[in-house]
Amino acid sequence: QRQWAVRVAWSACCGFFAMPNIEVIIKKNTASLSLDDDAKLGDLMKKLSSEHGIEISKQVLLYKCQEFRMPTYEQGKLVIYDGQQRMVMEDQRLADLKIDGAEPLVCGELQDEWLEEVKWGAFGQTLYEADYMNHREFVIFNGNPDSLPALEALNLSLR
User: Fold this and answer.
1) Percent of the chain with pLDDT over 90
2) Which residues are registered as beta bridge partners of 101?
3) Which pick of 20, 52, 112, 128 has the fewest CB atoms within 10 Å?
């Protein structure tokens, strides 16, 4: 209780409250979430899951040119991708990730992901085949999944 009193006194003195208020744009709506000072990204994702119904493993968060995910195949670890480098780490505090509520996050829902062979050629001949595969994701941001075509038909056209 003493810490709470100090926090309230500090916020009254400085003109703001210490708990971060994070705005998330999800399903064409803006959700304003209040979290603790030491909240982690996993806490934010759990709150989004309970309030908006998107599973944590299917959430894709965008913030300042970075993509944040917690896929099931990484055993609940945080995956950060900045367009060039993919980092896998333990869940991090929002403050450590520099998510302070100054800009909103955008939450999308992962529909499908797959590995794609890297090869090309012409006239039925493969001229080049790489020894690696590209990871592809199909994510919908601000969409209504009920108004989309059947996912099975879409997957057939992608493969």
Assistant:
1) 29
2) none
3) 128
Length of the chain: 159
The amino acid occupying position 43 is D
Q: What is the pLDDT of residue 47?
A: 92
Q: What is the pLDDT of residue 46?
A: 93
Cα separation of 149 and 26, whole Å?
20
Which residue from 71, 59, 58, 70 is spatially nearest to 31, judged by alpha carbons?
59
pTM of the model: 0.70
Contact 112, 156 (CB under 8 A): no
DSSP annotation of 149 reads P
Single-letter amino acid, residue 99: I
* Residue 119 pLDDT greater than 50, yes or no: yes
Ranges assigned E (strand) in the chain: 21-26, 29-34, 59-63, 66-69, 78-81, 86-89, 105-122, 125-141
CB atoms < 10 A from the CB of 63, how many?
20
**How many Å from the N-terminal Cα to the C-terminal Cα in the chain?**
58
Tokens representing residue 20 in the block: 């971060």
Instruction: Please give the mean pLDDT across all residues of the chain.
Output: 79
* Contact between 66 and 55 (Cβ < 8 Å): no
pLDDT at 108 over 50: yes
